[in-house]
């Protein structure tokens, strides 16, 4: 029987699902929550004591990274190059200028954001971040990272997807089928008993209470990125948490959400974000770099706008 466990972490709702009895899964669920909170503590940009903050503070110098941080930065650098820079975690300064300088739960109204804008604009002058993150240097033998100053990174979505996958793989040691969903990023192992796949709702980006479709997916990753869910007003302009690295501005395309299905969570997260930033004109080139992935895009009218492979199974 499928058991569920829910908690909040990484500023979102996390849902754990696993096949088995409640008694047998009580400890594994608690361990999974603890594992996720430990990852959050190390990867958050909102705490000056996190490992990510220490990396950002070292920009321009070599930094001794943990095995986990080194792996995620390696993935981020690989995908930055693979997407031609559309995916670029080196946009932290632009995120802060847009008002996203603290947990999204603390962004409460436009007056505060306008006040933060003046402070952030003075503290973080505009820099050309797009080419600089790709110049990050890595010493794999010693797990050393050197960011190209003055770049500072926000691992955000790619870290969230990667964490969901790590936690799911740990949880899978105690069950035949499990899934971890962290605010739209899901990674699953195995398939529920008497089912052909995992039923995953495709949420209407304009109405969280409504589903546009229900997908029937095999084990693996499914990640959704949206310009609507995490958005706010700043100086009478709508901002969102996705930054176009070539303009330094909030992303805007004909799509408001993109769902990507892939074998790895980091890959699905990167593809969803890159398509949302690049839009239709960049879709062919991006999809060519991810030949085994599948995507569904939702346009400004809330309609399913793209499924290039035509192979997705709906429940």
Biggest sheet overview: 8 strands, antiparallel
**Number of helical segments with 4 or more residues:** 9
Distance from first to last alpha carbon: 20 Å
- Computed Rg: 19 Å
Q: Mean pLDDT, rounded to whole units?
A: 83
Estimated share of beta-strand residues? 25-35%
| Structural class assignment | alpha+beta
**Helical content, roughly?**
25-40%
Find the count of extended strands (DSSP E, 2+ residues).
Answer: 17
Contiguous uncertain segments of 5+ residues:
106-131, 231-240, 309-315
Morphology = globular
Element order: H for helix, E for strand: EEHHEHHHHEEHEEEEEEEEEEHHEE
Instruction: Record the strand order, biggest sheet.
Output: 1-2-6-7-10-15-16-17
Which key phrases capture this entry?
eight-stranded antiparallel beta sheet; 35% helix; 17 strands; 9 helices; globular; 315 residues
């Amino acid at each position: 029987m499928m058991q569920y466990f829910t908690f909040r972490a990484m500023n979102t709702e996390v849902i754990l699902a696993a096949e088995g009895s409640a008694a047998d899964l009580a400890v594994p669920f608690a361990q999974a929550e603890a594992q996720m909170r430990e990852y959050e503590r190390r990867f958050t940009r909102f705490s000056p004591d996190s490992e990510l903050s220490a990396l950002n503070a070292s920009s321009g110098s070599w930094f001794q990274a943990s095995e986990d941080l080194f792996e995620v930065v390696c993935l981020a650098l690989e995908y930055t190059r693979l997407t031609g820079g559309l995916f670029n975690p080196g946009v932290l300064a632009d995120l802060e200028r847009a008002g996203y300088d603290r947990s999204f739960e603390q962004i409460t109204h436009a007056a505060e954001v306008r006040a933060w804008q003046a402070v952030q604009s003075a503290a973080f002058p505009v820099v050309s971040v797009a080419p600089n993150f790709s110049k990050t240097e890595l010493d794999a033998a010693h797990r050393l990272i050197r960011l190209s100053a003055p770049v500072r990174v926000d691992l955000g979505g790619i870290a969230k997807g990667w964490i969901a996958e790590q936690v799911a793989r740990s949880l899978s040691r105690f069950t035949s089928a499990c899934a971890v969903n962290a605010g739209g990023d899901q990674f699953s192992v195995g398939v529920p008993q008497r089912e052909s796949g995992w039923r995953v709702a495709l949420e209407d980006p304009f109405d969280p209470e409504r589903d546009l479709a229900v997908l029937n997916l095999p084990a693996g990753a499914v990640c959704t990125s949206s310009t609507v869910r995490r958005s706010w007003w700043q100086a009478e302009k709508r901002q969102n948490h996705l930054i176009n690295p070539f303009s330094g501005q909030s992303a805007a395309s004909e799509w408001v959400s993109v769902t990507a299905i892939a074998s790895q969570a980091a890959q699905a997260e990167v593809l969803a974000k890159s398509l949302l930033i690049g839009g239709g004109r960049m879709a062919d080139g991006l999809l060519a770099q991810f030949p085994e992935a599948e995507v569904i895009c939702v346009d400004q009218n809330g309609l399913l706008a793209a499924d290039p492979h035509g192979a997705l199974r709906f429940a």
